[in-house]
Amino acid sequence: MSPSSVFSAPKFRFGALAAAVVAAAGATIAAVPAGALAAGRGATVPFVEQEAETAATNGAVIGPNRAAGTLAGEASGRKAVTLSGQGQYVEFTLTAPANSIDFRYSVPDSVAGTISLYVGGTHNRDIALTSKWAWYYGSYPFTNNPGDGHAHHFYDETRALLGTSYPAGTKIRLQVDAGDVTPATIDLADFEQVGPAATRPANSVSVTDYGATANDTTDDAGAFDTAVAAAKSQGKEVWIPSGTFTLGHHITVDQVTIRGAGPWYSVLTGPRAGIFGKGEPASCGTPTYPGNPAVPGVSSAVKLYDFAIIGQVDARVDCDQSNAIGGALGGGSVVQNLWLQHTKVGLWLDGPFDGLTVSGNRILDQTADGLNLHQGISNTVVTNNFLRNTGDDGLAMWSEHDADHHNTFSFNTVLLPILANNIAVYGGHDNTVSDNVVADNQDQGGGLHIANRFSAVPLSGTTTVARNTAIRTGVLDSNWQFGVGALWFDGRDSAITGRVDVTDNDLVDNNYEAIQFIDGATTDVHFDGVRITGAGTFAWQLQSKPSGSVKNVVATGIGRAGVYNCMGPDAMSGLADQGGNSGWTTTYCGSWPAPVYGSDNGGTTTPPTTTPTTTPTQPGGNLALHKSVSASGSQGGFPPGNAVDGDANSYWESTNNAFPQALTVDFGSTVSVSRLVLKLPPSSAWGTRTQTISVDGIKAAAGYSFNPASGNTATVTFPAASVRTLRLTFTGNTGWPAGQLSELEAYSS
């Protein structure tokens, strides 16, 4: 049995399936041929996916709804079916032979029970449902405490082998019978023809030879450790036979192959279940989150094939190394055909290291990222992977401290990240994102993100973004309270000066704007062949000025205007027009508008008849709240947006030891301002300090005292000034070598 045998026929290109779903889901893009949106892109998968809302049902179709934190909004395609009473069902019809089902569902929090599965009209089995791995609360880093509010991450997946293969045309029904859970919401189901379990290969040692026992709750980690050591010393593979094995700690590997009978058969579970290379950081080490000690070095020639890691992680704790795959895996290592579910991160890889291939994996229901290439990882190919329902970025390259470089994310399908982006590149050089399909991200991110953020080594060389399809991506950010783009650029830590080539991409049924620039300049970006097919607000949202070139960018179905621009008529002038552009000639500047979708997509149905050209009525209250803000520099983790988010406990901190520093707020239109209230966090931990601050063009530099005994607040007054932007320049701070503000509040009186 070859390492990729589970991907034997039939195979399905998920991009084409996603295109069909999109064409059915939104009037905005209904005229676009299904298949044309994502043809040849995304992962090739061994299953056929069917959406519940397109199946036969006597339940209630919910949605569409694009709002984060709603049951319909978190569903694939923004629709699902709720079964709320006995006898209600969703019935799928097989379009290809299958002997398994994996379905995505939601039940109320703190609920467990069953749903009844019927095949061809006959009761097959009861399938267990639980809320244990879903229903998170609060903002990052998420909790399981309902008292923290902000419920989200409602869905989970469960799977079952059906016992025999059923032909195309067979009816597969999920039904609420007496005693089953209600309400139960069904989002989708995947149907697969799973091949037989593989047999033990020659020249291998089995974990059962060293004391591991399947299908019980005893800790098998020691047996796995011994088997790995024996295999390495003897030049053999490690074999995981069919069955479920419990690991009390993760297994550290180097120069060894571990192979299972297939991801439907060989399963590792437990709160510490994972396979790690050397080089991972130590876990928290508390009694609540016990962890392995750090193991220095880099592992090489590690080959992981054909098994599942289905963990028991029900909360996000960032210092806990409860990931499925971790550490440093270089030197020709391979991670292939794994099923990774219910861990913190599918693959969190810590560099520097060189040379890894990650392919053909399913990464589902994570509390944080799907995969993160963290600091100094190079020549790594992440291809043909399927990801759904991650708690943070689906796929990310994060060049913290050391630059990631010459890596590729290609032919992946990334669906429904609950936070952040489907795919993100944070710094580094000469990386490629190509031929992917991404859809339905939920909050604080977009589909594709290129950024200098989180203390990443700044982008340089050439970053390539080519032949990707983003569907219903970009969100109303819960902090900023304005739309984030399906494709967005953020120079928050520093200007993006490396070249970025954006070629032959499709941005489809965008929730808000299609393309966004925010926080610092992007000075060398080149667009050639971008098709914007439906956008709730704008084709372009300019909150900083890009430069480079633009060619063959064609927009249709734009809800509000072609360009959001309150930065002046020269804002787009840095992008040299090389021809072939159309559909985005109108401009809007004003308060953030509601998006416009088709009438069946839950949004406003009538676009404005004219583009606003007059100054909006002067708003009341804090004029700076949730407005666009930028800074000359910021310390990682303390971005300028914190100064206008309405939360006095979060703060902006400029680049350290580099005065002067500036903080600029853009009100979006001309307003009258005569008073500023400047705040630092209201905590006694913030000792008294004096900051030297000027209001450019309005008030000369002066010292302002911040004392926690009086709320750490300073007030600046001046004669009323009519301004569109307001810049504060910091030239000194007696308490820290940087400019610092938790809130910049601006008032008209």
What does this structure look like?
InterPro entries: Agl_cat_D2, CBM6-CBM35-CBM36-like_1, FA58C, Galactose-bd-like_sf, PbH1, Pectin_lyas_fold, Pectin_lyase_fold/virulence. Residues 1-38 form the signal peptide. Keywords: Signal. It holds the Pfam family CatAgl_D1. Residues 611-749 form the F5/8 type C domain. The longest helix has 14 residues, at 221-234. Helices cover 3% and strands 42% of the residues. The radius of gyration is 26 Å and the shape is globular. The termini are far apart. With 749 residues, the chain is mainly beta. The chain has two helices and 57 strands. Mean pLDDT is 90; it is low at 1-9, 19-35 and 599-618. Among the domains are: 47-192, Jelly Rolls, CATH 2.60.120; 628-747, Sandwich (Jelly Rolls). It has a 13-stranded parallel sheet with strand order 17-20-23-26-29-32-35-38-41-43-45-47-49. The chain has a twelve-stranded parallel barrel with strand order 25-27-30-33-36-39-42-40-37-34-31-28.
